[in-house]
Design goal:
Layout: H1 6-16, H2 20-29, H3 34-43, E1 59-66, E2 72-80, H4 83-86, H5 89-105, H6 110-115, E3 117-118, E4 121-122, H7 123-134, E5 139-147, E6 152-158, E7 164-172, H8 175-195, H9 207-224, H10 231-246, E8 252-253, E9 256-260, H11 261-272, E10 276-285, H12 297-305
Antiparallel strand pairs: 1-2, 2-5, 3-4, 6-7, 7-10, 8-9
């Protein structure tokens, strides 16, 4: 059986808000599996849904580039070892250069990127030279480019701290409608940066995710002592709430919380006398999927003094 450490209990408590003893007990039950522990606490009604981003981190920056005609958008995440270097002008310049390179050449994979040339040298050699100059390991971790044609438009948003970026693509009935929707699309990207919806719309939520939410809802109702015969009347409402809270189009718009993003989009289309549909949504948050460094600052300094 995996050893349940105080650090694991603390992490689970921070993720769910559940009591220390409840966290320890469920970690023992799940063999130290944090993800399963979160799920079990939710079933017992003892914990909130946890965002993975709350316990994942890395240094570096997100970058967003939009073409002048709003027909192509690129988003990248480039990691450095420390936040200090991420704020360095040389790192920022390198990030801009790499993002522009990916954007202009419409590079889609790491394999393609390595085969390209930048500043007259192979990309791998260029990156090594940047590492030598900047003094830290640098990784072009991920990137994506969205391109639209006629009656399509893209826009995006990069938060000022460089830790969150969003790009969106929409298709319209005409170029005129697209141009009229441009600013709203940026505002919706700002909304997505702040509210972190996991999915574009209900249709993009995997069936497995909805099945798990239904399972959690049943466990919660059982815990609350609700008769099983009325579960079918309650569960659809719980699932509807989950869908609205976790989809971009279903969330309440931060600039007008009386309407959903989808409703605001429809109103704008009506105002312009056309049609607007968001067809692509990409959000990068720095460090998603990367574990935090184990060492804290004090232990890092102590290690260097040895």
């Amino acid at each position: 059986m995996a050893e349940i450490t105080a650090k694991m209990v603390k992490e689970l408590r921070e993720l769910t808000g559940a009591g220390m003893m409840d966290c320890k007990k469920v970690l023992v039950q799940t063999g130290g599996d944090i993800e399963k522990a979160v799920e079990e606490l939710r079933k017992k009604g003892l914990g909130k849904a946890a965002k993975k981003a709350d316990r994942l981190a890395s240094e570096g920056s997100i970058s967003v580039k939009i073409s002048d005609d709003f027909k192509k958008a690129t988003i990248t995440e480039i990691n450095s070892e420390t936040d200090f270097v991420a704020k360095n002008e040389k790192f920022k310049s390198m990030t801009d250069a790499v993002t522009s390179h990916i954007h202009e050449n419409e590079i889609t994979t790491q394999e393609e990127l390595i085969k390209t040339e930048i500043d007259g040298m192979p990309f791998e050699e260029y990156l090594k030279s940047q590492i030598a100059t900047i003094g830290e390991n640098l990784v072009v971790r991920r990137f994506a480019t969205v391109k639209v044609g006629e009656n399509g438009i893209v826009n995006g948003y990069l938060h000022s701290n460089g830790k969150v970026g969003v790009i969106l693509a929409a298709k319209c009935d005409s170029e005129k409608t697209c141009q009229g929707a441009k600013d709203l699309l940026k505002n919706i990207a700002m909304h997505a940066a702040a509210m972190a919806p996991k999915y574009l719309n209900e249709e993009s939520i995997p069936a497995s995710v909805l099945e798990k939410e239904e399972e959690i809802a049943k466990a919660q109702l059982q815990k609350e002592g609700k008769p099983e015969k009325i579960w079918d009347k309650i569960i659809p409402g719980k699932l509807a709430k989950f869908k609205s809270e976790n989809t971009l189009l279903g969330q309440k718009f931060v600039m007008d919380d009386k309407k959903s993003v989808g409703e605001v989009l429809k109103e704008k289309a009506k105002e312009l006398g056309g049609e607007i549909e968001i067809v692509e949504y990409i959000r990068f948050e720095l460090g998603e999927g990367l574990e935090k460094k184990e060492d804290d600052f004090a232990s890092e300094v102590a290690a260097q003094l040895k």
